[in-house]
Amino acid sequence: MDIRWSSAIAATATPNTIGSSRLPKFYNLPLHERANIAKNIGKLTTAEFNSLNNYQGMSRELTDTFIENAIGTFSLPLGLASNFLINTKDYLVPMVVEESSVLAAASHGAKLVRAGGGFQAQSTEAIMTGQIQLLLKDVCPYDTILKEQRADLINYANVGQDRLIMRGGGVCGLDWHLLPALNHLIVHVHVNTCDAMGANIVNTICERLARRLQMLIPCDIGLQILTNLNDQRRAKASCEIPAKVFDCTRFDGLEVVERIEQAYQFAAHDPYRAATNNKGIMNGIDPVVIATGNDWRAVEAGAHAYACRSGHYKPLAYWRRVGNYLQGEIDLPLALGIVGGVTKLHPNATAALKILGQPNARALAEIVCCAGLAQNLAALRALSTEGIQKGHMHLHAKNLQQQRQTLYLEQR
Ligand code: MEV
């Protein structure tokens, strides 16, 4: 089908109440003044304005510290998904999400997996990778130089990282590849960031190492930044569920298992379906990432880039029938931290980590990938049997009814 482009903004007659979005020194104003500007621009009602100023979880000071130009906070529901049995341990999984049926689906998926003995999960060391782009000026035996200097460069890159090294982390590897079309040499520096997500650590190391590399190789320095395709820092989980668990009115369990495998195959061969399938997986992953104060954009970027690693966009989880069982597996990059950033500052993130029993970063990644697998299973089971709308619409209808009731009570 042909697509047509036009601008909805240009075509909209709505008067622009801002005048100009240039607000010099907006960031210097106290938060309450910024909030008042927002109130006027948006013509906010008192209720909307009060909602912006609801600092139940996070103080006004923290809000102002986390981001620039803050005018308030934005709440989302935090719930607990039940039934998770991971490596023989039970978990209630905190999830922050606005979509109805996500927690119900995660809990249902985990219940099905539980019937087969639960999830088996593993993770790699927390190895993050930074990229340094060297724009080569001359022909240079960079391979020989870098091989000879590798150990020294690693030592140099580790200077200033004493605390990380004390915790068993630090720079642990260096490799490189040429982008022949550009004549750019890309140096990858691998860093064990332990319990930190590690973006700041890696970026600091890249910037330091770049200066040393320039002394060895005639080049201009380009970018020095981590990659979110952190494929050395992954978590995986698997499960095996007896087919009889899937028995339902329309199908017997084995038929459901076969239909789930067919649904997986559809995604494996069709990127349009794979995108929706993976959205369903991220329905399980993102809410836990958010609840624990982690960077879900980084996780999303890594997951989708990893889904493309073969050159084709593929499902992140894999399902197949083996005898009278359904086997499932997921494997994806997960850069999660439990120290630094928002994780230790946001009181609700701290609470979420406590509810999970204070996992270290690797254990958290294992839990998160199980949430993704559970969510995928629940979606594929529903899609392969009664369809997604039945359960979804039931919960949606319940929410709407509740909403009407609240409005009614407010209006009385
Ligand atoms: C909806 O948020 C997610 C699903 O579309 C996922 C899927 O189709 O696998 C139900």
Report what the structure shows.
The chain is of the alpha+beta class and 412 residues long. Helices cover 46% and strands 20% of the residues. The chain contains 14 helices and 10 strands. The chain has helices spanning 8-11, 31-42, 46-52, 60-66, 102-114, 142-158, 162-166, 199-216, 253-269, 271-291, 296-307, 347-355, 361-384, 388-411; strands at 78-86, 89-96, 120-123, 127-136, 170-179, 184-192, 219-226, 234-242, 317-322, 325-333. The strands form 3 sheets. It has a 4-stranded antiparallel beta sheet with strand order 3-8-10-9. Strand 1 (78-86) and strand 2 (89-96) form a beta hairpin. Helix 9 crosses helix 10. The radius of gyration is 25 Å and the shape is globular. The protein binds (R)-mevalonate. The site of (R)-mevalonate (MEV) has 8 residues, from helix 10 and helix 13.
